[in-house]
Amino acid sequence: EIVMTQSPATLSVSPGERVTLSCRASQSINFNLAWYQHKPGQAPRLLIYGASVRAPGIPARFSGSGSGTDFTLTISSLQSEDLALYYCQQYTVRSHLTFGGGSKVEIK
Amino acid sequence: QVQLQESGPRLVRPSETLSLTCTVSDDSISSEYWSWIRSSPGKGLEWIGYIFHSGITKYNPSLKSRVTISVDTSNNQVSLNLFSVTAADTAVYYCARKLPGMSDAFDLWGQGAMVTVSS
Core-most of A55, B17, B20, B106, by most CB within 10 Å? Predict the structure, then answer.
């Protein structure tokens, strides 16, 4: 099983600030990584796949980078509606897809 | 816009079977992979398994002995059965569509079904 580790667990940020979330894989997953935004009471929303490809309709302030074992999701200027849990997911091992534990973004 | 809707009992007794159905709003069920994923406060998101319209399935090894996923293309439905449940299976259960193409990311999700395992 590929273990995905996310940091920080919680981040308090003021609107307009830059947010950087990290995701580390226990072994190389090439570019086979997705990021999701999950708000309470809603379905998760795909933000990024292929480590850096924005899903349709996702604002340009969301960007992804990285390859191998280390990945980053950046929100260039935090908006109040970005309050959520963010998860990374690897899909290199197609028979056992795994998610990170999540990073919670709070508005300061 | 394709929509997914989960349905089924929201309270299941320990040791019994959790059964949920996902209804897809159009006939794209015949061309994509469909997954079940669950979310709980203690464990975050957990992939349960997926099925292709042909019936090919893959399951999370940690749940494989207790889960079956099936597809009914005539009714545009994907079903989940999780056997011998315990309180640890209490979660919100989502059905989701795999992103068309080579990436096993999920681009479309249902609203989720909160299922509680309790006597």
Answer: B106
